[in-house]
Design a protein that fits this description.
Elements: E1 6-11, H1 12-22, H2 35-50, E2 55-59, H3 67-71, H4 89-99, E3 104-105, H5 112-125, E4 129-133, E5 147-151, E6 156-158, H6 160-167, H7 174-181, H8 196-206, H9 209-214, H10 222-230, H11 232-242, H12 264-273, H13 277-287, H14 299-307, E7 312-315, H15 319-332, E8 334-341, E9 351-359, E10 362-367, H16 395-407, E11 412-415, H17 418-427, E12 436-438, H18 439-447, H19 455-463, H20 470-474, H21 488-515, H22 519-526, H23 529-539, E13 541-542, H24 545-570, H25 579-589, H26 608-616, H27 620-645, E14 652-653, E15 656-658, E16 668-670, H28 682-688, E17 697-704, H29 707-715, H30 719-726, H31 731-740, H32 749-761, H33 768-775, H34 779-792, H35 794-810, E18 812-814, E19 820-822, H36 831-867, E20 873-878, E21 881-887, H37 891-904, E22 908-909, E23 915-917, E24 921-926, H38 929-932
Helix pairs in contact: 1-2, 2-4, 7-8, 7-11, 12-13, 14-21, 15-16, 17-23, 18-21, 19-21, 24-27, 26-27, 29-36, 30-31, 31-32, 31-34, 33-34, 34-35, 36-37
Protein name: DNA polymerase I
Domain DNA-directed DNA polymerase family A palm: 684-890
Domain 5'-3' exonuclease: 3-260
Length: 933
């Protein structure tokens, strides 16, 4: 019989203070104190060396304020602040845990003990054994069958007998004894005059706390009886304080805590950076142990395993050979796929060839549309230079067999930026590719914006491999050729390597995803989006070219009129589009104040900030230039450019969405960018009038209402805002009433506007200066508004400080759904850079959380529409808004389905499963995007 898994849960907070007090002061080369870090790392290494567990996690207290302080403000209030030289060691200690590939967990508002209780209960429910590494008496209440404690200092197991020795009762009665005895260290009041021994006698006699309190009048000792009667409420309060929560809502499962070997590079870097040479020497032998490529434990081990396989690349030109490669893919169950084309425009590109890699190191290239190569101007070597071209025989049959492989659900298809390949394959008639994985998206989920996610960069980073550059086979500049002209011997090495490297990266990144515990983010949020975005890009949106040209002419006339006014104010004609000439007019001719010259060119600065400041001071010419620039941008970026972007074959504009560009996980749109069309100005909104529905259809806009504010109210537990959202009230008016003390009825719109500015500005860490500029008030008045806001909603300040602390400790923040967002610069010594990073840390989990929510809605929506028998199609996503093309006969049913899916795709609930904030969706319908929104 297989032994059950053993989960070891380490009370990290207890380790920290033991380590700190057991060693004299120590500093690393830059002066940072590290004695606690060194002691903690030493204890962690010993634990890893001695333990027999299969699963491991270290738990920390996230902060001093927990839900128990809400119950009893004096809880632990008398505890002194940590020593000054220990505070900077807290994040380093967490870094030590992660360096050794051990899960490091904490939760704001909870103690580490609550997390330990929860994970212990969940593990026991699966049949696992649990060992809690701590000698903390508060954790002894968790001891039961399958759950024990281990005192790490005495290496002593603590079971039921040891608990009875300590408290005089069985483990399940420990909280009753603690409730009576209290705890002066934690400021738990208990009942005066009753210690642990007396409490144990009373609980043994009466069975439990409630029975004892109900029968307190029977106690023969007068003082004891009187104390119990007078302090019964304190006893009940104390029981709530000492009872550990084992029902915390957590996303991790036992599988997430499976032991894995650390990345040697990460360990060496951590120990070297902190000056722990003796520890590095101690672990070097272990780190240098060669990994087993057949059963790797870490991304680094995997990389060494897949990289050691030699390249075995082949050209496939017969159906017989193609069948053999397809059979290998079926046997492997996974195949990397890459397409070669004659264009970077995926929807219009011709499929030149396909490469397959059924296992690391082994790949082939199948040419479909190569032509006789042109070698002039290229330094090509090999037999292929000038040789006759031999494409795959019977192209149609070859495509049909490839199509069957791509559509086979039993074989995983892996690509790098596979959405591009989906378009190319669809153009060749291969429109079903499932299931699929994408190494670019995998890399983004793991590392976010820490680095680029191009295949060449990832190959160097994870495999230590320099791939063949495109210029090596196609040349560059005026001599560059398209891939269909590349000689086949050159093409096979380049194309087969692409597929092979993609598969090798897949092996590494899949392991890294598991090690980082980000599988859920990838599997539920990003991977399912790939085919959905591909369909949206293929569908496109109808754009009225005539309307755009009319708008373009209108904008040109406005610009001409403004230019006339500007010249009149300047007293002479000049090129309004020239920053240099504009600067001369403003600061040399007109002598306006506040001008600054560029240190490089000596020219006056005339950027938007400079012009905004001058316009705000009442100068007319800068204000007119700002208007002129706005029309120039609308004309060049939208009305002129969008006409050129209309696909002649479809009459539609087809944008391209990316999953791996923005820091927060938001989708980005480009070529053309349809997410930045201005909507706040009347002229900007006119551009949306050109986005129209075809005959028999309408456009439907479904927009999450104030989604980011709702997320803040949820994650920061702001009671007043939660209640306002739950009751469907005007959130900005409610905020104004709460902050400024004005009645809702007859509220001055300006007061509501101020509250709205703070509500939204707070998400971006708005400063008094920023709010002052936005509202046109003094900096002091703006600062007073923010202070009043924070005073009324103190949960906001707590949330912001907690988020910043997490970012400083981890280097990243997380959305409510587990996506990690790196925050570079959070520990920068430059105050301006650090302040910018702190603002980013506050906003990122909220903006990223909103992006996660709409992704989940987009994933659910196509199936929901199909199941309802509706023909609506997703066209666009613009941050919190979805745009659909809907048959006119199905408007009502589609509206109901869309609203239901979007409002229920995520439930924002508390630990008891009660919804804290509802998701509201505004749905509009019209013949154009402007009328639907």
């Amino acid at each position: 019989m297989t032994a059950p898994p053993t989960l070891m849960l380490v009370d990290g907070s207890g380790y920290i203070f033991r380590a700190y007090h057991s060693l004299p002061p120590m500093s690393r080369p830059d002066g940072t104190p590290v004695n606690a870090v060194y002691g903690f790392t030493t204890m962690l290494l010993k634990l890893l060396a001695d333990m027999k567990a299969t699963h491991l996690a270290v738990l920390f207290d996230a902060g001093r304020h927990t839900f128990r302080n809400e119950i009893y403000p004096a809880y632990k209030a008398q505890r002194p602040d940590p020593p000054a030289d220990l505070i900077p060691q807290f994040p380093l200690i967490r870094e030590a845990v992660r360096a050794f590939n051990v899960p490091c967990l904490e939760r704001e508002g909870l103690e580490a003990d609550d997390l330990i209780a929860t994970y212990a209960a969940r593990a026991r429910a699966t049949g696992a054994q649990v060992v809690i590494v701590s000698s903390d008496k508060d954790l002894m209440q968790l001891v039961r069958d399958g759950v024990s404690l281990l005192d790490p200092m005495k290496n002593r197991a603590i079971g039921p007998d040891e608990v009875r020795e300590k408290f005089g009762v069985d483990p399940d009665k420990v909280v009753d004894v603690q409730a009576l005895a209290g705890d002066p260290v934690d400021n738990v009041p208990g009942v005066p005059g009753i210690g642990v021994k007396t409490a144990a006698q009373l609980i043994t006699t009466y069975g439990d706390l409630e029975t004892l309190l109900a029968r307190a009048g029977e106690i023969p000792q007068p003082k004891r009886r009187q104390s119990l009667l007078e302090h019964a409420d304190n006893a009940r309060l104390s029981r709530r304080l000492v009872t550990l929560r084992d029902d915390v809502e957590v996303s991790e499962t036992l599988e997430d805590f499976a032991l894995g070997a650390p990345d040697p590079g990460v360990v060496r870097s951590f120990l070297t950076e902190n000056g722990f040479r003796s520890l590095l020497k101690r672990v070097e032998a272990t780190l240098d142990t060669a990994p087993d490529p057949a059963s790797p434990d870490t991304p680094a081990a995997v990389a060494q395993g897949v990289e050691s396989v030699p390249d075995d690349y082949h050209l496939v030109t017969t159906l017989e050979d193609l069948d053999a490669w397809i059979a290998e893919a079926h046997a492997s169950g996974v195949v990397a796929v890459d397409t070669e084309t004659n264009s970077l425009k995926a929807r219009h590109a011709t499929l030149v060839g396909v490469s397959l890699a059924p296992r690391p190191g082994r790949a082939c290239y199948i040419p479909f549309a190569h032509r006789a190569p042109k070698t002039e101007g290229l330094d090509l070597e090999g037999e292929g230079a000038g040789a006759a071209v031999t494409n795959i025989e019977d192209k149609d049959k070859a495509l049909a067999r490839l199509g069957a492989l791509l559509a086979d659900p039993s074989v995983l298809k892996v690509g790098h930026n596979i959405k591009f390949d989906l378009h190319v394959l669809a153009g060749a008639g291969l429109d079903t590719v499932t299931p699929l994985d994408d190494t670019m998206v995998l890399s983004f989920v793991i590392d976010g914006s820490r680095h680029g996610h191009g295949m060449d960069e990832l190959a160097q980073r994870h495999l230590g491999r320099t791939t063949i550059p495109f210029e090596a086979v196609c040349g560059k500049g005026k001599n560059q050729i398209t891939f269909d002209l590349v000689p086949l011997d050159q093409a096979v090495r380049y194309a087969a390597e692409d597929a092979d490297v993609t598969l090798r990266l897949h092996v590494v990144l899949r392991q890294a995803l598991l090690a980082a515990r980000l599988v859920r983010v990838y599997e539920t949020l990003d991977r399912p989006m790939i085919p959905i975005l591909a369909r949206m890009e293929q569908t496109g949106v109808v754009v009225d070219a005539v309307r755009l040209k009319t708008l373009s002419g209108e904008f040109a006339r406005r610009m001409a009129d403004l230019e006339t006014e500007i010249h009149a104010l300047a007293g002479r004609p000049f090129n309004v589009a020239s920053p240099k000439q504009l600067g001369e007019v403003l600061f040399d001719d007109m002598g306006l104040p506040g001008g600054k010259r560029s240190s490089k060119t000596g020219a006056w600065s005339t950027d938007a900030q400079v012009l905004d400041t001058l316009a705000g001071e009442g100068h007319a010419l800068p204000a007119l230039v700002l208007d002129w620039r706005q029309y120039a941008k609308l004309k060049s970026t939208y009305t002129d450019a969008l006409v050129e972007d209309i696909d002649r074959a479809t009459g539609r504009v087809h944008t391209t969405y990316s999953l791996s560009v923005t820091t927060t996980g938001r989708l980005s749109s480009n070529d053309p960018n349809l997410q930045n069309i201005p909507i706040r100005s009347e002229d900007g909104r006119k551009i949306r009038e050109a986005f129209v529905a075809p005959p028999g259809f309408c456009l439907m806009s479904a927009d999450y209402s104030q989604i980011e504010l709702r997320l803040v109210a949820h994650v920061a537990a702001i009671r007043a805002l939660r209640e306002a959202f739950a009751q469907g009230q005007d959130i900005h008016a409610i905020t104004a009433a709460q902050v400024f003390g004005v009645p809702l009825e007859g509220m001055d719109p300006m007061v509501r506007r101020r509250a709205k500015a703070i509500n939204f500005g707070i998400l971006y860490g708005i400063s008094a200066h920023g709010l002052a500029v936005q509202l046109g008030i003094s900096r002091g008045e703006a600062g007073a508004f923010i202070a009043a806001y924070m005073a009324r909603f103190p949960e906001i300040q707590t949330f912001m400080e907690t988020i910043k602390e997490q970012a400083r400790a981890q280097g990243f923040v997380e959305t409510p759904f587990g996506r990690r967002i790196p925050i570079p610069g959070i520990n920068d010594r430059n105050p301006a850079a650090r302040a910018f990073a702190e603002r980013q840390a506050i906003n990122a989990p909220i903006q990223g959380g909103a992006a996660d929510i709409i992704k989940r809605a987009m994933i659910r929506l196509p199936d929901a529409l199909s199941e309802a028998g509706l023909g609506a199609r997703l066209l666009l996503q613009v941050h919190d808004e979805l745009v659909l093309e809907v048959p006119e006969a199905e408007i009502d049913a589609t509206r109901d389905t869309v609203r239901r899916v979007m409002s229920t795709t995520v439930a924002l609930t508390d630990a008891q499963g009660v919804t804290t904030v509802p998701l509201d969706v505004d749905v509009g319908v019209g013949p154009s995007w402007a009328e639907a929104h």
